[in-house]
Specification:
Length: about 140
């Protein structure tokens, strides 16, 4: 096994681990989602000095929490697919784009994304993925 294949295998494992962490942490806003649903349903009784919370506050909680959950789970799914593609040496552009998005999640995502981009930019790795100059010349 070559050094490039070893690096791609390790990056793939790290993608799987980071996908699990991203999926887990993306579920933390479920608490905010439940609070928002409770506000909308009116389960928070009026207290001393206030009339209860307005419904738009509940919708704000629901929409924002849903957005963060959806984005986090989408990133986790993309990381899983990219990890599988790295092992199979396919989906070069997809892996590159997912690595760029992983850079937006500090600190572990940034490190993983930068290392993935560095490895994917090597000419020998591009040839493994069929993206090298020889592969392009063979298609014409």
């Amino acid at each position: 096994m070559s050094t490039d294949e070893d690096h791609l295998r390790l990056l793939s494992i790290f993608h799987f681990v980071f996908a699990a962490l991203a999926g887990l942490f993306s579920l933390l806003p479920i608490l905010h989602l439940l609070i928002g649903l409770g506000i909308i349903a009116g389960t928070f009784p009026p207290g001393a000095g206030h009339e209860g919370l307005p419904a738009f506050m509940g919708w704000f909680f629901v929409i924002l929490a849903s957005f963060f959950i959806l984005c986090g789970l989408s990133l986790a799914a993309c990381l899983l697919v990219a990890g599988r593609y790295l092992i199979q040496h396919r989906g070069y552009l997809f892996c590159l784009i997912v690595a760029a998005f992983a850079c937006l999640v500090p600190p572990f995502g940034t490190v993983l994304g930068v290392f993935t981009i560095i490895v994917l930019m090597r000419p020998s790795v591009k040839e493994l993925f069929g993206q090298g100059v020889a592969a392009v010349q063979g298609k014409t």
